[in-house]
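Pilot study result, target chain (173 residues):
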Amino acid sequence: MTLDQFWQVIDRINAPAAKPRFSQPFSKPPANGGMDEKLGKLEAELAKLPTAEKQSFADHFDECDARAYSWELWGAAYVIHGGCSDDSFMDFRSTLICMGRAIFEAALADPESLANLEIDEDDLFYEGFGYTAHGNYDQISRNVPFPEKPRGQEWDEEQVGDVYPQLAKKFGW
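Predicted structure:
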């Protein structure tokens, strides 16, 4: 699987669901802003792949995860969530990857771009995508080395809201 094919799988999980033929005016929106649905779509997409392609998908996912392991993104996640542990930042990075290439690349280039998203804070920290990318398959291993520490410039917790003013405004920092 190429990197472009990896992103095509991600695009498919983000494609809108087919509209029902008959409207259901009293139906509730999907739980977690549709994140549970996206996770189900990802599981279905990966289930179609042979083991080698699942491994390749996991490797590309891990490469993206390592790229996103930066102080700049962690600072943005910290402001959005009102704090951000290691585990929460892992969920944030996984969710960011599963939002698609354009959003992912924009966030890497400028974390403040996340202020333009129409998404709930909790949906940005959805737990599950990282596990599904490689954890649900016994034969999948981690082949991509992960950095020991985030790249970039560390920030001060007291001043991180000043570094990300748009995010601070949007998420009530």
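One observation from the pilot: Residues 103 and 117 are 9 Å apart (CA to CA). A full batch analysis is planned for the follow-on phase.
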